[in-house]
Specification:
Blueprint: E1 5-7, H1 16-25, E2 28-34, E3 41-49, E4 56-58, E5 63-66, E6 72-74, E7 96-108, E8 122-124, E9 129-132, E10 142-145, E11 157-159, E12 169-173, E13 187-191, E14 203-205, H2 207-216, E15 224-229, H3 230-240
Parallel strand pairs: 2-15, 6-7, 7-8, 13-14
Antiparallel strand pairs: 1-10, 2-3, 3-4, 3-5, 7-12, 7-15, 9-10, 9-11, 12-13
Length: 247
Amino acid sequence: MSFLLLLACSWSIANGRAATGEVNQSLQCVVVLTEDWASTGGLMFLFERDRTTHDWKEGKPRVPVLVGKKGLGLGRGVVSSNLRGAPIKKEGDERAPAGIFRLSTAFGYAPAHSASWVKLPYLALTKQIEGIDDPRSHYYNKLVDRSKVAKIDWRSSEQMLRQDVRYKWGVVVDHNPSATPGAGSCIFLHVWMSSSTPTTGCTAMREKDLLRLIRWLDPARRPILVQMPRAAYRSIQAKYGLPPDRS
């Protein structure tokens, strides 16, 4: 598949009943919980909702993950929440976003024909694909195929096809869907460098755990990521009908 660009965040921010409706339509929920806003590690839980009863059922296993070097910051997703004591996610702050987000697209180093098992739309990374983190760019918060852009207007970006394993496999987290300059860009679930190396703003895990997650994610089931400290999660769980925290 040929891409000019891929929006890293493709869903609008919502609130009130509209946001609750979007969350209620999801039948797959990835929950990442940390101890507090400054924690650099946490646990990931996978839940599926029964179409008839709407009850959530937890899958196994629970997976260790790493988040930002500075922990978490309140991001922009399908719900606009005011979580008490939350720092606000900003570009370059080394915090992973907290909130409720759509999971839209998978990517990786493998060519498309080798990733036919991926249910999500899949982007095969090349040397030309860059993640644009320059808030002044028209392409801010997008993955762009540089060879297909007529006028390069960014001064800062990340080449997605790396020499390390970080983006060998990944999933786009739809954070900052309106591409508000400076609110944070190009957030992913990806392979960690090691079990002791936090990220600069993404959520990372072992390759085998990420592969299991990607195999499980199904766009027909409208998967979402809910990521925040445990206390904050418990404060909104009932309001949005999220899976119960039994950890």
